[in-house]
Amino acid sequence: MGTDKPLNLLDLDRKAMERYFVSLGAKPFHGRNVFKWIHKHGVTDFDRMTDLSKRLRAQLRESAEVRLPEVVLEKPSADGTVKWVMELDDGQRVETVWIPDGRRSTVCVSSQVGCALDCAFCSTARQGFNRNLAVGEIVGQLWHATRIMQRPPTNVVLMGMGEPLANFEPVVSALDIMQDDLAYMLSKYRVTVSTSGIVPNLYRLREVSDVSLAVSLHAPDNGLRDELVPINRKYPLESLIPACRDFIRGDKRRKITWEYVMLDGVNDSIAHAKALIRLLEGTPSKINLIPFNPFPGSPYRSSPPERIAAFRQRLLRAGIMTIVRKTRGDDIDAACGQLVGRVRDRSGRALARLRVAADGRGVR
Ligand code: SAH
After folding, report:
1. Which long-range contacts (CB under 8 A, 24 or more apart) does 265-274 make?
2. Is residue 1 part of a domain?
3. What atom of ligand 1 comes closest to residue 298's alpha carbon?
4. Does 137 lie in the same domain as 25?
């Protein structure tokens, strides 16, 4: 964050907000009031925060502001999914997706601009890593979604662009704000962090947060996982699985959600299913099979539906709760692994430039 800019109150979780108000000579409850104005009521103009004294409002105007990302593009899908492209202070862009499903509505939030992990089947990976998002840039996505849809979502998943556990502190503060009664009021079962498995940070997360965990597994053995999810070379399955077990220890209602992208001829055989069953034995698990979502230049195809169904049947027979994730918003490139945002082309691959042209049309 630039030091010349006023403090962005969107970067502060409740505790930080209280501390800030104390530093102004006000009371912690003033901080709580402002926190509630911003997140619960969507008010960002200090003059509309009617329970603050004129003096305090003037003080705030001098030292702080509520700086939101700017929604520069809204793309509605035929299936009700909505994707937003949000532009940050420095012109970087990230994507956020609203996914309605009956009574449930899930917001998929980004945690970084780009991603450093280089998973073989993910389009975000193609743009390389640009930078971490600040707390306010993560929560700002939820703030906008809540205002635009005129209601808070019932669920939030950190499954957009980036690896949440590689942006640890800001993500933890953002999770606190999502769960806060004065803000978005989401329970621990309704906020999910999805990670490719940064093992030390899984242990750290357990100490500071009680959110739900989804882990991008995608392969039942190290050989294949090394290839698909290269962070596996650093944190292989024999360190990942115990860390996940440890994460849910002590809460009998909890399961780890394993994400498994179905790649034609790569990881989708019955032998892979059997190996997966062995791997997860003893770990309370739910498996989400995700049909691969193609993007321009992607080297894979999705497994055919029959093979996905057979794979699922094998897991179900072993007693593992398994669903096939519906592909949502693929007509607007909003499906898993299709989020691109603004591409500062670091990888030098042609795909990146192509997508800027497609996404940038009609935007300023
Ligand atoms: N970095 C985090 C969260 C972002 S991705 C993680 O790895 O979990 C959210 C999910 O979408 C992950 O399981 C990811 O592996 C999956 N995904 C990525 N690209 C995909 C694609 N093209 N098709 C289907 N799923 C994909």
Report:
1. 265/303, 266/224, 266/228, 266/300, 267/218, 267/219, 267/220, 267/224, 267/228, 268/303, 268/307, 268/308, 268/311, 270/310, 270/311, 270/314, 272/219, 272/220, 272/311, 273/311, 273/314, 273/315, 274/314
2. no
3. 22
4. no
Of 18, 87, 95, 163, catalytic: 95
Domain boundary among 22, 39, 65: 65
Same-domain status, 44 and 112: no
Number of domains in the chain: 2
216 lines ligand 1 (CB under 6 A): yes
115 and 32 in a common domain = no
Q: What atom in ligand 1 is closest to the CA of residue 302?
A: 23
Please say which residue of 42, 65, 88 terminates a domain: 65
Q: Say if residue 230 is in the same domain as residue 345.
A: yes
Q: Which residue has the CA at smallest separation from atom 12 of ligand 1?
A: 216
Burial of 3 per CB tally in 10 Å (0-12, 13-18, 19+):
exposed
Q: Please indicate whether residue 122 is annotated as part of the active site.
A: no
As a 3-state breakdown, the chain gives helix, strand, coil percent values, each rounded to 5, of: 40, 20, 40
62 noted as active-site residue: no
Q: In a structure prediction context, what are the per-residue pLDDT tens digits for the chain, which is 364 residues long?
A: 445 789 999 999 999 999 999 999 999 999 999 999 999 999 999 999 999 999 999 999 999 999 999 999 999 999 999 999 999 999 999 999 999 999 999 999 999 999 999 999 998 898 899 999 999 999 999 999 999 999 999 999 999 999 999 999 999 999 999 999 999 999 999 999 999 999 999 999 999 999 999 999 999 999 999 999 999 999 999 999 999 999 999 899 999 999 999 999 999 999 999 999 999 999 999 999 999 998 888 889 999 999 999 999 999 999 999 999 988 887 877 777 677 664 443 343 333 333 333 333 322 2
- Of 121, 263, 287, the one to substitute when testing ligand 1's pocket (max ligand atoms within 8 A of C-beta) is 121
Q: Spot the catalytic one: 119, 122, 244, 336.
A: 336
Smallest CA separation from ligand 1 atom 4, residue: 159
**Residue 84 lies in domain:** 70-358
- Letter for the amino acid at 186? L
CATH assignment at residue 283 = 3.20.20.70
State in Å: Cα 91 to ligand 1 middle: 25
156 and 16 in one domain?
no
